[in-house]
Structures are given as structure tokens and as C-alpha cells.
Amino acid sequence: MSRLELAIAMRYLRSRRGSRLLSFITLIAIGGLMVGVGALIVIMGVMNGLQYDLREKILVGSPDIRVLGYGDDLRIQPWKQLVDSVRKERGVVAASPFVLTQGLLRATSNYQEAVSISGIVPQGDSVAMGIVSRPGGTVSAGPVTSIRQHATTGDFRFATADGKRRGAVLGKLLADRLHVSIGSTLTAMTSAGVAQNPITGGYYPRLFDLEVTGTFDTGLYEYDNSYVFVDIDQARELAGLGTAVTGIEVRTLDRTSAATVATRLEERLGFPYRTVTWEAQNSSLFRALKLEKAGMGFILMLIITVAALNIVSTLTMVVRDKTREVGILKAMGLKSGSVLRIFLVQGLVIGVVGTGLGLMLGGTVGIGLDRYHLIALDPTIYFIDHLPVRMQALDVALISLLGVAVATLATVYPALQASRLYPLEAIRSE
Predict the structure, then answer these.
(1) pLDDT at position 418, please?
(2) Residue 229 pLDDT
(3) Rounded to the nearest 5°, which phi and psi values hold at 45?
(4) Tell me, what's the pLDDT at 134?
(5) Quick one: residue 142, left, alpha or beta (phi over 0 = left, psi -120 to 50 = alpha)?
(6) Which of 33, 113, 122, 396 has the fewest CB atoms nearer than 10 Å to its CB?
(7) What's the predicted TM-score (pTM) here?
(8) Cα dihedral sign, 214-218-219-221
(9) pLDDT at residue 196, rounded to an integer
């Protein structure tokens, strides 16, 4: 590309007397590309933000991998040897037993709520802190999940005055609905907690007394509205598991490698154990988000396509308007390849400018949406309280390359038309 070719290309893009319409159409083409690129960046950022935010909030109380047994009763016994075996697997940084059951929770009033009761090892316990055996010593890798970091009042030690660890940590929304706070008394009942009446021979529900020792707030409606965390021994009694547990929860070095680690664990442990990753536990949700992201990307690509058609029409009109000038240039010795490059540069400039403005527009809108929570959502429906935006460098780079490439390709046909003009015919055309 010579300086002459670049100068001519820039001159054709600028408005001159008698060709202001072409300059206006050029601005429209740049604006169309800017809107398309900006919209695509914002939407991809929103879809990435939804995936990331939902994943992080779901995994607040859900581990990367769960090791479970087969059967309807979902119990593992013995489990201590299994925990030790899981911890030795490469890629595992923490493993701990857990109990999960359903039940009813009642405060001092007659109002009661159906809740999910999760039994975990108390905070401060060596198992809860994920001490992982490694050659040459032990390494503290932290707890399996991050639920303990979201305590707003109290803690996850489940300690009560009688020393029996009857404490319960409730989600903030559930605690508000039950009108309870630290020190309040709760009554829990589960389907497994039944006993036989020795006189009538019938069965009656067993009631378990719990004491509120903390509340947590994750920002995820499902957890905050219906989850109760208790000491794992208390949960075993509530679920009627005896000395068994529901399964083993596992944290890996990297969540993206959870599927690989789970496969290795399942092969090594063998029957009757199976593994479930965080992706499998929420597969329908994340598949729907990926499909929606692809669909929205395709739809917004149509905007960029329309912008590309505007570029084709703009440069075609430029070629028609500059036919005589192109003929004179070719008669003076300008080669066809130079004419081709002149018009290709125009398309490239439109693509770069439009894409650049689109990047600024999309980045500004995306950052504003995420930082100031401009679009509020109903957490009872969407799990989150605002529309999150997370722009990834790879997506931005691909969208930028796409915008420039489409604009450049759109100039090929009109540029070829201009390069094939015969000097004499071009001069005579006007």
C-alpha cells in the first residue's frame, strides 16, 4: 500500500461538494457496524455474566464433585475410608462428608416451612478445613464449599449452650419469614424422624429441637429462602441414617477439571460408588444458557450483516460516482491492483472505525450495567437480583475480528468492479 493509494482512499471517504450524500451513507454504514458490534459485545457479556454469576452462586453451597452411592436410600457406610481414598486422588484439594435431607421447620408460632437440611462438618474442624494428606506433611486447602464465608450473623460452629451442637444456620430470607434470630428455638421434623407408639402400635413424628446460631446470605434465592445447615451428626439423626452419610463432597484445583477428576475417581472407586459434577447437577440450566448465548449471537450477527450490506451499497455508489476519476487515474498509469487496494482500504477504514466505536459503546454500556445494577431482576424467578455483565477478552477479540473481517469482505465486490474499469470507457461515462 503506497502513500498515494492511501491518500486517494481517504479523499474518497471525506465529504466534498456535490458528494455529501455519499459521506452521509458512509456514516450510516459506520453507525450500523457500531451498533451491531456494540450490541453483540453487551449480549455476550450478559450471557457470560449470567453463566458465571449463576455458577458461582450455585457453587456457594454445592461442591465441584459429589461422590454418591447407588440406590434410593442414598447412604454411604462406611465413609471414613472413602474420604481418605478420595483425598488421595490427583486434583482433589479437599473432601468432606455431608448429609442432605428434606424436612419441616417450625418456630415458636404454628407457622412452619418445608426446607432442605444440609449437614456439614462444623467450622474449625480439621475435616471442614480440608486438611489434605500429601507426602511430606499436610496442606490446608480450606473448606470444600464457600458457604461459611457468607455468614451474616453467627457462624457455622453450630455450638449451643448444652454442648450438643444443636445449632442451625438459616438462609436470611427463611429466617426473616420465620421471624427468628440468634438464640431462637426451632422444631424440626423429617420423614425419617418417626417413632412407634408402644401403646397403640401406631407411628408418630419425632420432633428435634434446634437453636438458631447464625444466618447466611448468598444472594441466590434458592439457598437463602429454603436451606438450613446443621452439624453433620445432627443431620444424620434427622435423616435417620445412623452412622452413615449421604455422600462425600469434593473440591478440585480447578472447576473446569472437575469432570476429568470425577471420571478418574469413579474408575478408581468402582461400584457401588458414582460421581456427579457441578455441571451435571445443573446441566439443564447451563445447557439452556449456552443455547441462548448461541442464539442471541446469531441474531445479532444479522445486524452486522445489514451493516456489511450498507458498506457494499456505499462503495458501489462511490465507484459509480468516481468512475471518471478512476478512468483518469488509470489513464495516467495507475494499475488495477492499486485501484483495488484503494477501495479495499475504504472498507477496512469503515470496518476499523465502526468496530472501534462499537467496542467503546459496548464496553461503556456493559460496565455501566454491571457496576450500577441498572437492570434489576426478580430473584424469585431468575436466582439473581440484577443483570450481570462479564466481558471476556476472547469474546471481545473475536467480535472485533469479525466486525473488521465482514466490513473488509463487503468491499471486495465493489473494489473488483472499480479495478476492472477501462480508462477510455470510464472517462466517457460522464
Answers:
(1) 86
(2) 96
(3) -65, -40
(4) 41
(5) left
(6) 113
(7) 0.71
(8) negative
(9) 60
Query: What's the pLDDT score for residue 202?
Result: 62
Residues 187, 117: contact at Cβ < 8 Å?
no
Provide the 10 A C-beta neighbour count for residue 405.
14
In this structure, which amino acid lies at residue 129? Answer: M
Q: CB-based burial of residue 84 (10 Å sphere; 0-12 exposed, 13-18 middle, 19+ buried)?
A: exposed
Intervals of the chain under pLDDT 50: 128-141
